[in-house]
Amino acid sequence: RRLRGFRRTLELNGVSLPDERVFQGSLQPEAGREAAHRFLHDQRQLTAVWAHNDLMALGFMQEIHRQGFQVPQSLSVMGMDDTDSARLVTPTLTSVCQNFSKMCSTAVDMLMEQRRGLTLRRTRVVVEPSLIIRESTRSLSR
Question: Do 71 and 60 meet the contact criterion of CB atoms below 8 Å apart?
């Protein structure tokens, strides 16, 4: 679902994401390192990378740093989930924050309504994420 939403957002902004530019792997730092190795040996220039979660993004950043590239000067990197690790690395990682607390409290409220025999007012709830901009991304206009 994350990739589908990411692609949809890109398309709404006039950007396409060809399948060959998508790396699928585990949700661990090793997958990020593998993706970095693969994409850095591709002849096409990257400007930014979005990872499925912060761990993959951190693995990606680690590998490109090892190969002599700098974030965000060489390319921007963004993760997802806004984990504590995103704030502890240098440069700090830009991340999409999903409000898990709001998701959980809404789910509990809905369960309690059902348990009390009430008809649910809603069956689908969208909790909007927020973008936490940190040091790992830069504007292309700079």
Answer: no
| Among 139, 96, 132, residue whose Cα is nearest residue 9 | 96
Check residue 92 and report its DSSP letter: P
The rounded Cα 71 to chain-centroid distance in angstroms is 16
Residue given tokens 């348990």 in the structure block: 115
What does the pLDDT look like over 67-95, one tens digit per residue? 999 999 999 999 999 999 999 999 999 99
Q: Which residues contact 110 (CB under 8 A, 6 or more apart)?
A: 120, 122, 125
Of 17, 59, 52, nearest to 36 by C-alpha is 59
CA pair distance 136, 61, nearest whole angstrom: 9
Beta strands in 13-107 (DSSP E): 48-50, 76-80, 94-97
